[in-house]
Design goal:
This protein is mainly α. Helix content is about 75%, strand content about 0%. The chain has one domain. This is Olfactory receptor.
Length: about 170
């Protein structure tokens, strides 16, 4: 969003990205995240658990918790899949959509050096987006298709995919 405004409307950037607008965007995103997480927690809390209550995961995700239940958990699995797809594909779709608009705007710039400068600004962000989304999506797809049988490998892939990109942020930028 920031790059979209900075590249497409550079002269109006400070009037579009006001503190109030940023606060509303942040509040909206946090509200969405809370709503996405609260329903799986409520539904998992209502399940009867008869065997082990030890969650086999480094972070207490929805899937490892509801799998411990002793009844049919197909609704929880579908809810978890929908939540994951929303949380992953929603922002990724928005990022791709904004970059399509940016690319169209940049191709209209007459100077090749200005085009390169604009693409270079976006390239670092796109690199981080790929570094984050590709391993996470791969891990979730392989996990949902049950192609990763070793749970430790699955946990390692997820842990690396959510820790490496933030660590690379200062280096890449």
């Amino acid at each position: 969003y920031d790059r979209l405004i900075a590249i497409c409307w550079p002269l109006r950037y400070s009037t579009i990205n006001t503190n109030l607008r940023m606060l509303l965007i942040i509040a909206g995103i946090w509200s969405l995240v809370v709503l996405l997480e609260i329903f799986p927690v409520i539904f998992a809390a209502r399940l009867p658990y008869c065997s082990s209550r030890e969650v086999q995961s480094c972070c207490c995700e929805h899937s490892p918790v509801y799998k411990l239940a002793c009844i049919d958990t197909s609704f929880n699995r579908q809810l978890g899949t929908a939540k994951t797809l929303t949380a992953l594909l929603g922002p990724l779709t928005f990022i791709i959509f904004t970059y399509v608009i940016v690319v169209v705007a940049v191709t209209r710039i007459a100077s090749i050096s200005q085009r390169w400068k604009a693409f270079h600004t976006c390239l670092t962000h796109l690199l981080l987006v790929l570094l984050y989304y590709m391993p996470v999506m791969l891990a979730y797809v392989l996990g949902n298709l049950r192609l990763i049988q070793n749970f430790d490998l699955y946990t390692a892939v997820l842990t690396v995919s959510v820790t490496i990109p933030p660590m690379l942020n200062p280096i890449i930028y």
